[in-house]
Amino acid sequence: MGEVPKVEIIGLLDFPDVKPGDDLGKLIVEVARRNGIEFMDGDVIVIAQKIVSKSEGRIVDLQTVKPSEYAVKLGEELGKDPRLVEVVLRESHEVLKAEAGHLISLTRHGFVCANAGVDLSNVDGSGLRVTLLPVNPDESARRIRERIKELTGRDVAVVITDTFGRPFREGVVNFAIGISGIHPFRDYIGKVDRYGYVMRVTKVCIVDEVAAAAELVMGQGAEGIPVVVIRGLRYERRDDASIQEVVMRKEKWLFR
Fold this sequence. Notes:
The protein is of the alpha+beta class. The chain is built from 6 helices and 12 strands. The chain has helices at 24-34, 49-55, 69-78, 82-91, 137-152, 206-218, and strands spanning 8-11, 44-48, 59-61, 92-99, 102-107, 112-114, 129-131, 157-166, 169-180, 185-187, 203-205, 227-231. The strands form 4 sheets. Strands 1-12-2-8-9 form a 5-stranded mixed beta sheet.
């Protein structure tokens, strides 16, 4: 009998409030060491989008936003602050659905999500400051990964996550929005199952599985665990990996 496969999900406690300009890679290493954790080659560092956006200054004060006539009209129809709607419109490549109080957008990254990822939660400012998604989440992940390697000498992977809804399912799930150092898929196409069937279409999005697993420890902000270390995961390492490999081209959409 071989070694029993297992994966550890380790939350980093007592993470400080992140401010614009903070060196996030350095902060992660420091907090890990305060938790008695030294990174190992192959660890996957999973980071909540919110602290990445904060460190990059992707914060907007709604008091500074002047909504367009369209944002005002849409805000009235949806029961949303028109200033928030204006920010969402600015961050959207296309509005896909606006009804029943929901504003679903296609972002410039290619993500389909509520409010183009603009978020009011876990931001100081009495509900008047929002965070935006990073401009280039893959680049954000790459910088953090390189900084961790510079400080520790360890070759880790980085996955930046955010919570999205899913078609025809209640609740939200953590998804990957930026990656570095990890192939996004585990490909079973062409492999033979235990009964001799050759699989033709099975390709598992491992970075979304990583994101969802990390959320079990992260929670949604109240727990104060924005960074999780996943240890023991088998994955293919790739320096040139991109979340754009996961984003489905619009011509392949079955649900419209």
